[in-house]
Amino acid sequence: MFKKMMFILFLACALGLQASVTHTNPSLKSLDAEGEKADFLNKASLNVASNGEYKFTSTVGTRAKWDDGISLLNFLDSYKIPQSLYYQLPVEDKELVAEIYAGATYYMLKDSTGKLLQAFIPISENAQIYINYSGNSYKLSIIPINYVVSDEVVALKVQHTPYQDLLDATGDRALAGEFISAYKNNVNFKKYIAKDDVLAVIYERKYRLGRQFGQPNIKIAMIETNKTPNYLVSFNDKYYNLQGKEMTNFLLITPVKYRRISSKFSYGRRHPILGIIRPHYGVDFATPIGTPIHAAADGRVIFAGIKGGYGNVVEIAHADGIKTLYAHMHKILTRAGRYVKQGTVIGTVGTTGLSTGPHLHFGVYKNGVPVDPLGRIKTARVELNRKQKASFNKLAKELKAELDSEVLNIDNSNLFMKKIVQNM
Ligand SMILES: [Zn+2]
Fold first, then answer.
1. What sign does the dihedral 202-203-204-209 (CA atoms) show?
2. How far away, in angstroms, is 186 Cα from ligand 1 center?
3. Most-buried pick from 298, 334, 345, 398 (CB within 10 A)?
4. Cα of 19 to ligand 1 centre, how many Å?
5. How many CA atoms lie within 13 A of 61 on its CB side?
């Protein structure tokens, strides 16, 4: 029984629930084998009765991928859950629910009759929808996703292409893609990279239930061109060279003339008691109804229509894995499948899906992960001020020393890799 409880505590912790059991056990951290969890999921779940007793019942755990074109309402219908669960949500949560994305891995617990007891549906790297059946009714809340962060190092001698070799070494498509887009416009890989040129990256990787999750964070990267190293250091979410010159390649313009920013981007803070979070995955530009909305960059319209709490929405796919989203539109003036130029009018500002004043909710996603739009919009490049420069120099020096020493570990296999799990 005690062992079972520990499994449950682990699962609750891994899925981001407030664990209600107070015992802790250091050996829990070693229970990360996928097999053990899958086994557990098929055995038992924890039901807390109103008198506070724990009861184990036979349940089935499932991991599934969210299908394209499915809304939360479709999902609720398929489990005979009342739609009021969605309609009663505050507008901010309705917006967040519209963030469910195709291909997201989600988890469910059902009883032996197929009735849904719990579902954990991610809406980003940091937040998930939590549906829970208790006391004869369903509850829906947005809660944080807990994950393990690992500091990782990969250093190799290029044998094929930087992308292919990074992918082969790490199996991490997102890392290889981020590496290439970081150096885009800085280093011409095709022209200057020769066989056995060295490439190295120190980065952070998130894992959820033993699987790679979300986007890697590159801390420092280096690639040689004709034996000369080119470094990039990440600082305040942008890439700089060792001299502190910003190397980020800006793609976007401000999509609308606005009066003020009524809400900024945030990942949300966890409510200390309720455990819920309320992130805001975009910037709200307050401006009158009918104001034209412009495509923030060249791209292809991948969605034009109604999207839950976002009302009328246009989504555009751009280069470098960037996607932009324009919500609460009054009129949509484009169609899915169309190619648009930066500045093309794609619609007008409205209040659809909203109870507040007219504004454009503008979202920016990098490889599907929401990022702060204001950090991605083309402005005059701002030099680091004296204080920032000092902390940048310190960081860059430390990271460079670390990376340079890891590169020495590359052996005859042309490869060196290291992983350090930081926290849980
Ligand atoms: Zn918004």
1. negative
2. 34
3. 334
4. 31
5. 20
Tokens 């899915």, residue located: 336
ipTM of the modeled complex: 0.99
CB neighbours of residue 285 within 10 Å: 24
For 36-89, what is each residue's pLDDT tens digit? 343 334 444 455 555 555 555 678 899 999 998 889 999 999 999 999 999 999
pLDDT score at 52: 53
User: 283 CA distance to ligand 1 centroid (A)?
Assistant: 6
Name all domains of the chain by residue range, CATH numbers in brackets: 2-144 (3.10.450.350), 148-249+389-423 (3.10.450.350), 260-375 (2.70.70.10)
Pairing state between β 359-366 and 369-371: antiparallel
Spacing, Cα 56 to ligand 1 middle (Å): 41
Q: What's the 27 CA to ligand 1 centre distance in angstroms?
A: 42
Distance 361 CA to ligand 1 centre (A): 4
Least Cα distance to 393 among 385, 405, 381, 382 occurs for: 385
Instruction: Please report how the helices 162-170 and 173-183 are oriented relative to each other, as an axis angle in degrees rounded to 10.
Output: 150
Cβ atoms 14, 208 nearer than 8 A: yes
In whole angstroms, what is the distance from residue 314 CA to residue 307 CA? 9
| Residue pointed to by tokens 């979070």 | 277
